[in-house]
Amino acid sequence: MGYAQLVIGPAGSGKSTYCSSLYRYCENMQRSIHIVNLDPAAENFDYPVAMDIRELISLDDVMEELGLGPNGGLLYCMEHLEDNLDDWLEEELEHYREDDYLVFDCPGQIELFSHVPMLRNFVEHLKRKNFNVCAVYLLDSQFITDVTKFISGCMASLSAMVQLELPHVNILSKMDLVTNKREIENYLNPESHVLLSELNQRMAPQFAKLNKALIELVDEYSMVSFVPLDLRKQSSIRYVLNQIDNCIQYGEDADVKVKDLDPPEDD
Fold first, then answer.
1. CB-facing half-sphere around the CA of 92: CA atoms within 13 A
2. What is the pLDDT of residue 177?
3. Domain limits of the chain?
4. pTM of the entire predicted model
5. Rounded to a whole number, what is the distance in angstroms from the first to the last CA of the chain?
6. d(CA 128, CA 101)
7. Which segments of 116-233 does DSSP mark as H helices, in order?
8. Among 68, 137, 140, 177, which one has the highest count of C-beta atoms within 10 angstroms of its own C-beta?
9. pLDDT, tens digit, for every residue of 22-66?
């Protein structure tokens, strides 16, 4: 049984920084994880790259050879990855044991995990290889300045949840950069009626029914629960990692070590 995190979220939400901090934390804890780069446009890394999609295809080459723009080129790269799952990915996975822990650092184009099937097919391939996979959705906490932006972030995360059909952990990243944390704390575990009241105050009266439907949807899917992440604090990283490990049942199949408390018998 293998384990995997699929790290997704909008561009600039801190996915690569999260992967780097997670790697350092696990290294200090003498726990082995492997970071995989799935971004064909990536250039620099603060972590050792275990697998790199750029060895298969890179965005710069696609844009130069096919004359595509950044978004079209990225979609082409991910489609190429999908077409080579049985070759490239299979060969790369042969270097790892069945119980290894992989963290996939994904591109930030939101359409990849909201409505096009490439990442979903990638996940299905991992599942067939006996991996337990969890989607880790990062949202920049500095983006959450009012209820409308909070609902927008929830809808984007919900779209990814419905598309990928995976255990899902939502993270508010960059908490170490937030100046007024009290405002953010109001959205960590808010009451639905409070959200609806704030939303109605900001929106025109004709949107009242839509506001009610949105809040009910968010509340029904428990999307109002975000885990704050402050990378300066090891306790915060540990808490986030524990949440993810629980989702993918990491370590639950490990053998129980029993200590013999009885003294040895004399011959």
1. 22
2. 86
3. 2-146+166-182+225-248
4. 0.88
5. 43
6. 16
7. 118-128, 147-164, 181-185, 192-202, 208-220
8. 137
9. 999 999 999 999 999 999 999 888 899 999 999 999 999 999 999
